[in-house]
Amino acid sequence: MVGKRVRELRIKRGLSQQDLGLAIGVTKVSICGYENGTRLPNLEKLVKLADILETTTDYLLGREIPVWNDENKSYIGSISYEDVNFITELRHFPNLYNKLLKDVRRSASIINKKLVK
User: Fold this and answer.
1) What are phi and psi of 67, to 5 degrees?
2) How far is CA 70 from CA 7, 17, 76, 105, in A?
3) Model confidence over 51-78: pLDDT tens digits?
4) Which of 39, 52, 80, 105 could form a Cys-Cys staple with 33, CB 3.0–4.6 A?
5) Domain with 51 in it: what CATH number?
6) For the chain, how many helices (H) and strands (E)?
7) Running DSSP on this structure, what letter comes out for residue 80?
């Protein structure tokens, strides 16, 4: 997962393997190894990769999904796989899903009150 995401983000930002390697203090060969899955970055390099690629370590490790603004292609934040699974399951109930989306804050408050009792 790390390699695929590093490659995807590196290309999206117009960086060569050499450029990215220089930015985090490793060789082009190391970046190639990360992308091909034959090497894994240590914790320090993983954090530097996330900083340079403007993402999170969780995303690089496959633990979250980035959310982008479609209009200006800017990064909004991320969502966990658990949240995605919840939303996917909720969509199996279209009437409920649509009702919850009409006023998300109110819906969350009502659900919270019912569950906390």
Assistant:
1) -120, 125
2) 21, 27, 10, 23
3) 999 988 988 888 777 777 877 777 777 7
4) 39
5) 1.10.260.40
6) 8, 2
7) E
How many CB atoms neighbour CB 2 within 10 A? 19
- Structure-block tokens of residue 32: 């190639």
Give residue 58's pLDDT: 85
Mean pLDDT of 80-108: 88
Is 95 among the domain residues? yes
Q: Is 49 in the same domain as 101?
A: no
Are both 99 and 50 inside the same structural domain? no
Rounded Cα–Cα distance for residues 20 and 23 (Å): 5
pTM comes to: 0.60
Q: Residue 41 corresponds to which amino acid? A: P
pLDDT at position 75? 75
Q: Which residue has the tokens 């009502």?
A: 110
